Amino acid sequence: MLFSILLSTAIGSWGSARYPVEKLGKVMMIGGLALAVLAIIYGVVLGDLLRAWIGFARPLRIVITAILVAPCGLLMGVMIPSAVRVLGAKDSALVPWGWGVNGAMSVIGTSIATLIAIYGGFTATFIVGAAMYAIAGGLGALVAKRYAKLEKP
After folding, report:
1. Spatial contact of 79 and 106, defined as CB atoms under 8 Å apart
2. Would you say residue 45 lies in a domain?
3. How far, CA to CA in Å, does 91 sit from each of 16, 45, 149?
4. Which ranges of 54-121 does DSSP label H, i.e. alpha helix?
5. Most exposed residue of 12, 60, 79, 101, measured as fewest CB within 10 angstroms of its CB?
């Protein structure tokens, strides 16, 4: 699973480079909303499917996991590099803060997701995650819009 998420986020990051900075606000918004939709679908559908697939041979379960993780990884891989490119295009001092917030939220988010899963279940965890990615996409679009208006120093 870790290999799949690392590979797919790397591919998403690489793919985000093909968009010009002026389009990255829209890219982040679409990425965040697409992640939200995927999370809701996964939260509603995957529980029963995973229980049905538990008896599959390990190699098949590995392939299924990679297939399920890859679309999310691709979309997640677009978000942070896009925000960094938007901020970097204006030589913003916020670039290091962005990396710091990303790292911190990765740790904090994992802890919070674990608590939500324990007390609310996996569906609730996916729904909260969906809301967070939708918000992140919207914030990315707002940052891009704000920084598009600024003059480069």
Report:
1. no
2. yes
3. 19, 43, 14
4. 58-89, 94-120
5. 60
Tell me if 153 is assigned to some domain.
Answer: no
Q: For residue 150, give the nearest of 68, 72, 87, 81 by alpha carbon.
A: 87
Which residues, other chains included, contact 15 with Cβ-Cβ below 8 Å and sequence gap of 6+? 74, 77, 78
Report pTM. 0.86
Range of the domain at 48: 2-148
Q: Look up residue 46 and give its amino acid.
A: L
Region class of 150: left (phi > 0), else alpha (psi between -120 and 50), else beta: beta
In sequence order, which residues have a C-beta less than 8 Å from that of residue 66 and are 6 or more positions away?
Answer: 1, 3, 4
